[in-house]
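Below is just one:
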Amino acid sequence: MGAIYRILNTITGKMYIGKTLEKCPYTRWKEHQRNISNNIGCPALRDAVNKHGINNFRFEVLIICFDEDASYYEREYIKKFNTITPNGYNITKGGEGGGFIGKKHSDETKELIRIRISQYFKDPENRKANSNRVKSFYKKEGTKELARQRTINSDKWKKAKEEGRVGSGKRPPTEETKAKISAGLRMYNERRRLLNKQV
């Protein structure tokens, strides 16, 4: 799973929006701090931290998402919060490849991600906070349509449509379900036949 985060300057209100595919999003914050201390990384963010002090910056996870959607959400949140310099600390529109792009998680890492995400969403406050972030994001004009177009143009959706798993709003009935429906119809018709005889 991926995450979109922001680094907020609590003095000026300016922000940096970023994405990470790390199993723990806060690892990315530590990486930012190391980069700043080594005089590398995003120059706008680095200069601001050096000016105001690291203690005046707050790291917050905005949304948890699938890896393949991280670039999309990063671009949208950069637009939503208007964080391109000089309004914020982003120097690009987002969506560029990071160090993990083109690679794949090992099965062990996937399991760790699954466990961490599961633990995160066990907390009712985390579930509510993430739900509110998503709702707020989709209230933006045009966002729902963009997300819908992105979904229906994806390979996964096209494959699911070919298999009949989407389109009608539900999965096709299983053989067991079909048998139950058939038995129910037979029973219904038999009862009607008996009632008609009595009349």
Notes: The two ends are 64 Å apart (CA to CA). The helical segments are 26-37, 43-52, 70-81, 107-122, 124-138, 143-152, 155-162, 175-198. The mean pLDDT is 78.
